[in-house]
Specification:
Order of helices and strands of chain B: EEEHEEHEHHHEHEHEE
Helix content of chain A: 55-70%
Helix content of chain B: 25-40%
Oligomer: heterodimer
CATH class of chain B: Alpha Beta
CATH superfamily of chain B: P-loop containing nucleotide triphosphate hydrolases
Radius of gyration of chain A: 32 Å
Number of helices of chain A: 30
Structural class of chain B: alpha/beta
Bound molecules: adenosine-5'-triphosphate, magnesium ion
Largest interface: A-B, 30 and 31 residues
Shape of chain A: elongated
CATH architecture of chain B: 3-Layer(aba) Sandwich
Chain lengths: ~850, ~220
Amino acid sequence: MNWSTSLRVFLAHGGRDFLAHKTLTLLNIAALAVGVGAIVAIQTVNETALRSFRASLDLVAGRPDFTVEGQGFRLPESLLPILRADPAVREATPVLQVVASLPAHPGEFLHLVGVDPFSNGELVTYRLEDALKNPADAIAFVSEPDTIALTRRLAERLGLKIGDTLRAVHGGRETTLRVRFLLEPSDDLVGADDHLALADIATVQSRFQLGGQIDRIETILRTASPAEKETVRQSLTERLRPRLPAHARAGSPDRRGREVERMLGAFQLNLTALSLIALVVGMFLVTNTVAANVARRRSEFGLLRALGLGRRALTILIVAESLLLALAGSILGVWAGLEVARRLLGTVASTVTSHYVLLSMRDVTVTPASLIGAVVAGLVAAALAAWWPAREAARVPPVDALQFGHISDRAVARFNRFLLPAVISFAAAGLFSLTALHGGLPQTGFLAALGVLLAAAFTAPLVAHALARVRPARIPAWILARSFFLRGLHRHSLAAAALAVSVGMALGVAIMVHSFRVTVDRWIGESIRADLFIAPSTNLIAGSLEPLDPEAETIATALPGIRAVGSYREIRLFLDGAPAKLAACKLEVLKTCNPLPILSSLPGDPYELCQNGEYAFVSENFSHRRHLKPGDTVSLPTPNGLRPIQVAAVFRDYTTESGLILLDRAIYQKITGDLNLTSLALHLEPGTPVQPLIDSLRAQLRPRGEFLIYSQSALRDEALRIFDRSFAVTELLRTLAIGVAALGVTLSLTALVAERTREIGVLRATGARRGQVLRTIMAEAGYLGATGISLGAITGFVVALVLMRVINRAFFGWTIDWHTPWPLLGSILVFVFLVCLLAGLPPSLRASRLSPAEALRSE
Amino acid sequence: MLETRDLHKIYQSGDARVEALRGITLKILSGEIVAITGPSGCGKSTLLHILGALDTPSSGQAYIDGLPLHSMNDDALTGLRQLKIGFVFQFFHLLPTLTVEENVLLPLLLSGRADALGKSRARDLLETVGLADRTHHRPHQLSGGQLQRAALARALVHRPSVLLADEPTGNLDSASSAAVINLLTSLSRKEKTTVILVTHSEEVAKAADRRIRLVDGRIHS
Ligand SMILES: Nc1ncnc2c1ncn2[C@@H]1O[C@H](COP(=O)(O)OP(=O)(O)OP(=O)(O)O)[C@@H](O)[C@H]1O
Ligand SMILES: [Mg+2]
């Protein structure tokens, strides 16, 4: 028989089969759609985050060849002539950025970028051109010292027209700016932050008293060929090095994007790994549907084989058919994923902003390539999933396949063959844990988690078998359900495996998040002792680290009932290519009012060491990641050169993923010359009422701009709110995985009910009532749920162990104390069990409604 | 006693309309053994399903012991099957994960009568059909003839007044076939069960008291 005939027969049968079993077909499509959707959603959010970050970067920086940038601290303007004088440089332009709050518009802010419209001709102006239509505009832009250009979107939101003025506050300095130009939305602005505002650099400097300071210098090199650029860049870096301050970083502008990508990498990897789980669970379901399909159409396949269709050809046909469905599922998944991504944008933007960099996203941007990638992932998953049952089908000798009856009476035994793969997966998980912790390969931690989940999947048939050994009493539905379950094991094992994987994931993540939360909460209780905190509002809204109005400290110190005023300064910088935070405190206040949870220290009083010399406290994760102990040295790049700082003590801290170096305020100011503060911590005399103090602070600070004033409990709530938001996406994915697994239960039972139609007819003929048939299939769903849940519960603890002791340790270097949220776990398990029963309801109803006579005639 | 009057059954699916039964009127006395024969597709199984309270006629009346099958709902029909009807099928259809004894007990179990009395009844029946030493075996350990004998025990365990058998020997060799038919007739004579058996086999039909031949949905006399 030739291919085209086979194909015709196959398609004719397949098409009719799909129509006859719509539910199964739809479930199959849905399963893949959810898997692919999860990938697309996460992929899109990740991509949008990076894109919008890069877009903001491009928007202010253009696309220069070479950048000199001050990290942590600003650069002196005097570097500009040095660069301009260099023979390799054709053009160099300065940039200064500030985040300013807008007293008239609470909750809004300006991301004000100072540029030089004359020197940046080839760099940034092409964006300014949208606003500055002619040379006269450019002159107005620089000559009127209060001119700014706003994005049209922000102007509309704030109700501003050209010519209107706007009050802005930064670092305690208030100024009035005039909107003279609007930036039109353009391709360059896609994905960029609409809080962007442009002004002449001199305007920003003079308005906010930042005379002589710049953030960056962007340059265009004289060479045209991209090949040469790298060497020119290197020699330029070499020439400049002796003339640049220690904290200046020079090089290709791509570098910063890459660094941000690396910073976001761990965060994204986490989400990507979770989204893959959804696809894997989807794969189980596809295998299940294809297996069901194949079982049903056994005699058709037998016929095709008997007529001369080869084994491989049949396998290919079956896989191809599943691919067709997968295509539909994947396309649906792409659509759903994009929708979900749109909904997730806000959450992810604020998470990234509070942990890494300022980020604001308006709409999703995604490359066709990654969408195609997700579809391909869906197709590959479907092909892989279909391959196994297809091969099994093709292996059945044609004669057997043609034989009538006994369709579902497949061998129950042979489940021991899954034991070895389970053990191997588990061993691999152990191995990967070791490489993650001690081999310098943190990414392998995720493989360890995957290994645990795989081991659970392989154990599912064994657990199912063991559970079915419990012989029920005299309840007919239960006896029958057990009988059905045992015989359906070939199908149920997959559903149970999917369920166990999802439940394991869900519980593991739940335990981890809860433990983390309790740890952080306790730590906050221990380490945040001040009664009131004051910070500039932009630090919350925009996640920036803008300086606090220095007047705030004076006002706070003068209040009655104050025991001590602590201060906090924080900057972000790169140390040896990895991000870190540098902070400064009044250590004498910390020591008396709020001692740090110290883990290890040099002999003597570490506070005294730090107050009197160039010593620092470092956080646990900083010391862990950089392999530093008390007594070791860190080189801090400062405007005054590289300063070696000795580690006096290591303390517990959960405020940053990247690690923290803490200096005494006086030492910090001496080393860096930076007198700014980020926030204040007020310790009150015992018995001083808090609310009157807050009111008095508010009253005195209000004229000076927008401030955040937190009480201790409010700060704690805020910290936990940020924490919860960071894990919101995780929980969404967890719910998705359970949802897909529930689909698996429906699917498995629907397939089995279809296979057993005739048997159900016999049962009805033998006197089974509708209700008994319903209860039988429901009890079978119960068996299935119990298998997945009991296995998943155990898996959950192992997954939690890997997440906490391997992945978190390897990636972030912090210790999470183990806290098991028993009530939460219990409710998740009960919830999943109920979901399983609910998922079993449609097939149960279908089975109970079969007409006995029709059922007996089936096949 | 079984009785039908002008029984019609029409299968309608879309435009296709099949008249499987076209006016069957018959009367079968208690304890009678009747064989239904006829060409394939003439409506034998359809008639058997209606008589067995598995299906309802499109029109006409059917009575078992005076109870009107044509006007009962699903629940009442099920109740009737639990009390009065036993089935034997061509493909045995024992549940493979239950033992032979459990399979035989199934009708009693489903109607909540699997007590000590029921169990001894099941054991007696198994002994009668010659499977006393096979009670704890699983169906896959039995031969076709043995399976059908177990199925016969299952069909009779709840002392039905009517036993319906749709080609009970269709899947058996002639020796097993003869054994099953012997048991079927002797047991039902002993228990005064009415038997209706559909068959294509002349041998089997001979064992019946009476024959009804169906052709094209009508009784052909
Ligand atoms: N569900 C149905 N829908 C449509 N037509 C049906 C249906 N069930 C049976 N028929 C038709 O009704 C007629 C009688 O069928 P039935 O099964 O009673 O025949 P039968 O005498 O038992 O045949 P066989 O000896 O082959 O078993 C046949 O023409 C059959 O195609
Ligand atoms: Mg028939």
